[in-house]
Amino acid sequence: MFDVIIIGAGIVGCFVARDLSKYNLNVLVLEKGNDVSVGATMANSAIIHSGHDPLDGTLKAKLNVEGNKMYEAVCKELNCSFKRIGAYVLASSDEEIEQLHILYQRAINRDIPCALQEYEEIKKVEPNINKSIKLGLWLPTTGIIYPWEVAIACIENAMENGVTLKLNSEVSDIYKSENYILKTKEDVYETKAVINCTGVRADEIYKLINNEIDFSITARKGEYFVLDHLPNPLVNHVIYPVPTSKGKGVLVVPTTHGNTLLGPTSFEIDDKSAINNTQAGLEYVRNEVGKLIDNIPFDKVIRTFAGNRPTGTTHDFIIEESKKYENFYNVAAIESPGLASAPAISKMIVDIYLQKHAASLKDDWQPYRLKNITISELSLEEKNEWVKKDPRYGRIVCRCEKVTEGEIVDAIHRPCGATTVKGIKKRVRPGMGRCQGGFCEPLVVEILARELHKSKDEILLDDIGSKVLVGRTKHDEEI
Description:
single chain, 479 residues, alpha+beta, 5-stranded antiparallel β-sheet, 12 helices, globular
């Protein structure tokens, strides 16, 4: 019997798990994927928005501002990357300038630091700005993170504080007796309360218990380019166009690890699982970013990717207890600015739960999470100390990102350890560089097999069934 079952281990579900781990509660997280942070958390713009954009009176506006203020402390506790690099919203027409003034006033009303700047002033800090730009809105509190790093850190910390995680556990049925009974392919679970954090499938999960739901979720696909590390930054801050009804538009975004994202698109699709790139989508991104920034080196693209974000019919976040089923809580329609709002969303739903359920705080709750060792960030003396402790920290596996064998082994044996090639990639970045795993992937497979006590042909790229190796050639030899 569990006090709470959280369905879904994206960034919101992981934050909720961490926040509930502070209390003397028996908490289980069920995730249908083969790892955490495999949906929208894995494919987004990685921006902690300032809160200037959402409409007044919405949960998006309230929780974006709150979440932005929370991230710095959260990332410090969890030892995650966070950079408050600031952003510009750029306008090139009289109509866009009028909308920019509306955003400026919203930011002022919400006590968000901001300023309007003319083209010449922006050009001093963003030399590649397009000549058509007339005015920009400067938002210094905008930040960037590594989204799946934060989600993984949250669930690791939650597990260290007593939360249970079950992967490959897609919920196929829910029914209410005295408590809630949740069925997966392998198991049946009983719980007093359910928190639904399942992203684009939140409406489908809710329908398992309630056929007459009052919202639905559609998927909006976002497609991106990833640029290699550049000798000189393309941009120094997040660059937005003036937003439209479809969202914040196509952006130019520096990442915490020195790459640059170009995107996303925002097209509604029928297939919620479709995360393929399209020629039309990428061409749209290419055309739109050229209206903001000149000299974009498309010859330095090392990857394209796509992800789906959940758009609800309410046009706002849904964070509430079901009106029909007591102790069933929906956290749904968490589209942009969902990433920026995630810690505040978690606080809100946990507060709603605690209003009805008495739970005492743990005396021994530990908020800190041991940082992943990143050898490339250390001084020469620090590197030498780690190599003395364990020679595997001196063996480079990924030359592009300078990732060592020791870092990969550490990522495998952490509380929410990696079991797949993509799991390793998310945690310590081999395969994120210029060659996209062309050199290091065979070594990653070998290390995973050795540490997990499996054969190499059992190692998966990502989900169940995605084998990296399918057989041997007659010339094949052991690596």
